[in-house]
Amino acid sequence: MTDPTNPPKIRDVARLAGVSVATVSRALSNPAIVSEQARIAVEKAVAETGYTVNLMARNLRQQQVGAVLALVPNLANPFFSEILAGISDTLRAEGLSLLVLDTLRTDPDTPNGGIRSYLSRSRADGVIVLDGTLDPALFAHGSCPPLVQACEWIEGLAGPRVLADNETGARLAIEHLLGLGHRDIVHLTGPAKNTLSISRAAGVDAALATAGLPPAHRLEGAFTLSSGRAAAEALLARTPRPTAVFCDNDEMAIGLMAGLRAEGLDVPRDFSIVGFDNIEMSAYASVPLTTIRQKRAHLGRCAAERLLAQRTAPTPDETLILPVELVIRDSTAKRV
Amino acid sequence: MTDPTNPPKIRDVARLAGVSVATVSRALSNPAIVSEQARIAVEKAVAETGYTVNLMARNLRQQQVGAVLALVPNLANPFFSEILAGISDTLRAEGLSLLVLDTLRTDPDTPNGGIRSYLSRSRADGVIVLDGTLDPALFAHGSCPPLVQACEWIEGLAGPRVLADNETGARLAIEHLLGLGHRDIVHLTGPAKNTLSISRAAGVDAALATAGLPPAHRLEGAFTLSSGRAAAEALLARTPRPTAVFCDNDEMAIGLMAGLRAEGLDVPRDFSIVGFDNIEMSAYASVPLTTIRQKRAHLGRCAAERLLAQRTAPTPDETLILPVELVIRDSTAKRV
DNA sequence: TTGTATGCGTTATCAC
DNA sequence: GTGATAACGCATACAA
C-alpha cells in the first residue's frame, strides 16, 4: 500500500482509477474540467494509494520553485524574526515555502559569503531583502529572482521597497522630547552608513530645525544591547550634559538605561529616553520605554504581498511607507 | 550572452566547450574524473555563458530537495530564532537550504494547520521539529522525511533528540537557591503539558528531595513576559510567602520582576529569582538575572548535524543531551 | 576518459 | 472530455 521507499506515482493512480495520467493530473489541479465520473474515480484512487504530487517534478515542469528566500541580517535578532513571521503568513496562504538565509553568518572564505549561489531562479521564485548592507552587485545578474526590499534598503538596488516611516518616527520622537522641554538631545544611531539611521537622522534634524535648533549630536551604536550600554559613558562625557536621548532601536535604549543605572543615574529624571521599534521587552524594562511602534509582522506581510504581486504584473518600483506611532511610557519626562 | 528570460542550459555549455552534456555534468560535479583538457574547456564555457545548474532538474534527477524544514513554534521568539541560526550554519556548510515553518501561525481551517502538506519527501530532505505540541500522527506516514527533535520533544514520536540537560539545569538552579538559604521555592513553569517543564519539574523536586524538602509549589505560565508578570499576583497571594522563584525561562523571569517591582517589592531582597536560557536581555534587566545558560545556536547545529548523519547511516534513536550551566548574577541573594 | 541514451514525475500540447 | 506524448534540465548506466 504505502511503501516508504517507493511512493505512488501519478501512473499508479491512473492505473487504479482506469484513466490516463493526463486525466489524473487535471483532476487534481483543475477538477472542473474533468467529468464527475473521472474525478470521483481519481479521488478514490488517490485516497487508496496515498498519492501526493512530487513537487520537484511539478516545479521542474512549471519552471518554478514554490519558495521565497528571505535574506536576513541576523536571524537571532527578534526584530527580524518577527518580520519573518509576517512573511511566512503570507507565503503560506499562497502555498509557498519560506527559505531563510542569515547573511551575518556568512562564509568568510567566499566573496559575499556564498550568498550569490542562493540568488538563482532555480532556488527561489523571489527574494525579500532585509539586509541593507549587501553588495548590490549580488543581484545584478539575469538569473536573480524578482526581489523586494523590506525594512532596510540598498542604495542602487532596484525593486519595490516596503519601509516603515522612519523619518516621521524620528520626528515624532523628537517632537515629544521637545514638548517636554528638552533642548539638548542626542541621537544614538545604528552604524553610520545604515540606511535606517540616515533617514531617521533626517527626521531628527528636521524636527529640530522646525524648533529653530541645530542638528542633534550623534553617537554611533550598532543596534545592540552592548553598544547601548557602551554609549552611556560617551553620553556622560559630553558637556554640557544632554538631557534626552533618541535611540535608533529599543535594544540600544535598554542597554543605555542599564549603563546609566550602573552610573547611578535615573531615567527619566536625569535623562529622558526614546527608543524605536516597540519590541515586546520594552514594556517590561526597568523603566517602561517610550518608543516608536513599528508593525513588524505587518511589514513582513506587505513585503511578501508585494513580491507575489510581481508574479503577475511586473509592478513599477514603488516604495510603500508604513505608518509608525509614538508609544509614551515612563522613560520620558519633563525636563527639570 | 546572458539572457534573463532564457538562461543557458547544460547543452549550451556542452556545445560551446565541444564536449557532450555528460562530460559537462561530470566536470561540474566531479572534476577529478574528466581530463584536464575537458575540464578547462568546460570551465571556460561555463564562465562565458554564465551557466549555473538548474537545481530543480538536478533535484528531480537525484531524488532530493536540497533543503531541510524546521518546524518552529514561534518564529518571533528569539529563543527559537537563535536555534534556527545554528541550524542554518550547519546546513549552509553542506550547501543545503533552510525552510522554516511557523507552527503557531497555523491555518485554523485545516486540521493540523496545513503542516501535513509540508511533511513530504518532495518538499524537504529532512525535518527538525522544535515544537513539542504537535500531533505525532502528523509524522506517521511513509512520505515523511527523516526527522530530528530538538529542544522540545513529542511523546510517542520516534527519531533522535537533541536536548538541553533540563533536569540538571533545574537542579543547579534549586541547589543554588538552597545554598542561599531558601526553603520555600516556587517553580514558575511553562504550560503544564510542556515536556520541558515536566523534565525541569523532575529536576526541581529531585534537588528538593535530596535536601529533605517536599516538592515545589508550581505556578503555570506560558513562557511569555506577560504570563511572568501575571504570576506576581499569584505569588504574593501565597502564605507563607515564598522567598524564591525558579522560572522556566528568562522571559517569564523578567516579566515576574516587572510585576513584583510594580508591587513595590525588591529583587533579590524580597525574592530571589532564577531564570532559564540566558537570553541576551537577561544581563541587561533592571536586576541582572541569575539563570541557566543554554547554548542555543550550538543546539541548533547539533540537531542539524544529527539529521545529516541520518542521510548516510540510519542512526539509532539516540538522545543527545547538551550540558547547561548556572550563571550567577544579581537576582539571587542570601535569604534574610 | 568520453558519448549515447534513458529516466526522474509531472504538466501541457495536441489530436481525437 | 480524454489519451498519448513531448518537454522540463539534469545525472548516470552502459557502451565505446
Automatic annotation (TrEMBL), chains A, B:
InterPro entries reported for this sequence: HTH_LacI, LacI/GalR-like_sensor, Lambda_DNA-bd_dom_sf, Peripla_BP_I
SMART domains linked to this entry: HTH_LACI
N-terminal signal peptide: none
Key word Transcription regulation present: yes
Pfam family, one: Peripla_BP_3
Keywords of the record: DNA-binding, Transcription, Transcription regulation
Gene3D superfamilies membership: 3.40.50.2300, lambda repressor-like DNA-binding domains
HTH lacI-type domain span: 8-62
GO molecular function, one term: transcription cis-regulatory region binding
PANTHER family: HTH-TYPE TRANSCRIPTIONAL REGULATOR GALS, LACI-RELATED TRANSCRIPTIONAL REPRESSOR
Annotated protein name in UniProt: LacI family transcriptional regulator
Species name: Celeribacter baekdonensis B30
